[in-house]
Amino acid sequence: MTDIKKTNYRWVVVTLLFFATTINYLDRQVIGLLKPTLEKQFAWTEEDYSHIVMAFQAAYALGLLAFGGFIDKLGTKLGYAVSLIVWSVAAMLHAVVKTTLGFASVRAALGLGESGNFPAAIKVVAEWFPKKERALATGIFNSGANIGAVLAPVMVPWILGIYGWQMAFIITGALGFVWLIFWWIFYEIPNKHKKINAAEYEHVHSDSDEPSDEPRQKVKWTRLFGIRQTWVFVVGKFLTDPIWYFFLFWLPSYFSSTFNLDLSKPSLPLALVYTATTVGSIGGGYLSSWLIKSGMPVFRARKTTMLIFALCVVPIFAARYATNIWQAVGLISLAAAAHQAWSANIFTTTSDMFPKKAVSSVVGIGGMAGSIGGIIFPSFIGWVLETYKDAGNITAGYNIIFTVCACAYLFAWLIMHLLAPRMKVVKL
Fold first, then answer.
1. How many C-beta neighbours within 10 Å does residue 192 have?
2. Where are the alpha helices (DSSP H) in 45-164?
3. How far apart are CA 123 and CA 201, in angstroms?
4. At what angle do helices 9-42 and 131-163 cross, to 10 degrees?
5. Each residue of 140-164: pLDDT tens digit?
6. Spatial separation of the C-alpha atoms in residues 251 and 245, rounded to whole Å
7. How far out from the chain centre does Cα 53 lie?
8. CA gap 127, 117 in Å, rounded
9. N or C: which end of the chain has fewer CB within 10 A?
10. What is the CATH number of the domain that holds 318?
11. What are the b/e assignments for 42-69, b being 16+ CB within 10 Å?
12. What confidence score (pLDDT) does residue 408 get?
């Protein structure tokens, strides 16, 4: 190792990823907060809304598969920029549509563009961080999802009250173009970047057996389907991503219908839930990184951390017994924080198991599986809530959904463990 004091530019890179992810989730969260307003404006039923959510998820699933390979081929700098431009334009177009079909169409375009965020971001982390720091770096940028979800309940009602629902979509969508300026100025891969010195470059590659910086070498994604480790990630995402989408798209409606929360005003309960997820995301990444630095093997550290947080989701089934909003907020906050801790680690397993040239493709395949689950689950949610709403007891419908949430992570962890007890590194 060189005696030169190393630079720390990799943390600037994580900051860029954090803000991109914040904007990504801010844009997708807007419609959930405007749901009561839009339901009145366009006479939506619960099933109409679930179909709009499903349009987003279907496009997100297809986009993940396409963007994963696209980013592996094109590189992170240009690939990320293309993704952001598509989703920002789509977010702003929500302001001009007038029909349910129109909303479904622009939601699909939003899903297509937003699907590039995580394949690009995980690949950037693999390019810029050694394995012992990747979970923490992932946890930091992934916490942007939570900050976006915290900002939305504050920003959107304020914009709605002053300017109307159309401007809520336009203002939040335009933020992406501000980020794009900083991305293009400050980002490049390590071996091309002028702000990184030799000491940091050596640190970035200190625990890697791969040749340095080969982002444009492509692996056919069809080949990846025959690898067991791909299915570990696929199963984990398929069973747990839908739970997070439920937290994003239905929690505002849950608090409104069950506890009469006024969504036309800034929402403290929602802000607290999503603030807790920030702690979970960074804490989950820190825990596995700490276990690795303490001497635990990488894969055991990831699995141990994921099991701990899978257990933390289980208490959400008790939300059915909550007699006031703050009891529900506490239980849901714990579960949502645990999801983000789980997410920080499951994403990092891809860069642990696969070479950098395949990371975006694997993330895309797994993300597609999570979105397919996100298509199926909203259909189930819509049917359950509409059924119990007609019966005059929509809270009972939410109780069923919370029970499903409580079991999903332990079930996912068990199947992942059975598929790959030792999670060996893939040689391509």
1. 9
2. 46-74, 76-93, 100-114, 117-128, 131-163
3. 16
4. 40
5. 888 887 787 778 878 888 888 888 8
6. 10
7. 15
8. 15
9. N
10. 1.20.1250.20
11. eebebebbbbbbbbbbbbbbbbbbbbbb
12. 92
Give me the amino acid identity at 255: F
Residue 2 pLDDT exceeds 50: no
Q: Which residue has the tokens 């995580």?
A: 118
As given in the structure block, the two tokens for residue 254 are 């849950």
Which structure tokens are listed for 145?
């999802």
Q: Is the pLDDT of residue 375 over 90?
A: no
The answer to whether the beta carbons of residues 259 and 325 sit under 8 Å apart is yes
Give this prediction's pTM: 0.71
Q: Is residue 3 part of a domain?
A: no
User: Is pLDDT of 208 > 80?
Assistant: no
Place of tokens 């993704």: 83
In angstroms, the CA 268 to CA 352 distance is 38
Count of CB atoms within 10 A of residue 219's CB?
19
Domain that holds residue 146: 9-419
> What integer best gives the mean pLDDT of the chain?
83
- Tell the residue number behind the tokens 């962890």, with chain if given: 413
The answer, yes or no, to whether residue 213 has pLDDT greater than 60, is no
Alpha-carbon span 318 to 337, nearest angstrom: 16
N residues, the chain: 428
d(CA 111, CA 55): 8
Question: Is the pLDDT score of 266 beyond 70?
Answer: no
Rounded Cα–Cα distance for residues 270 and 220 (Å): 42
Q: For 191-201, what is each residue's pLDDT tens digit?
A: 888 888 888 88
Amino acid symbol at 310: A
CA distance 203 to 255: 47
pLDDT tens column, 305-347: 999 999 999 999 888 788 888 998 999 999 999 998 998 888 8
User: Which residues does 66 contact at the CB level (< 8 Å), separation at least 6?
Assistant: 115, 364
For 94, the 3-state DSSP assignment is coil
In a domain, 405, yes or no: yes
Distances from the Cα of 407 to the Cα of 205, 237, 311, angstroms:
38, 14, 9
Per the domain annotation, does 54 fall within a domain? yes
- Residue 368: enclosing H or E segment and its boundaries? helix 356-390
Q: Is residue 424 part of a domain?
A: no
| Token code pair at residue 288 | 């596995």
Instruction: Kindly tell me if the per-residue pLDDT of 293 is higher than 90.
Output: no
Q: What is the crossing angle of helices 117-128 and 76-93, to 10°?
A: 150
For the record, the structure tokens of 212 come out as: 């340095």
Question: Strand runs (DSSP E) across 141-261, as ranges?
Answer: none
What's the total number of domains in the chain?
A: 1
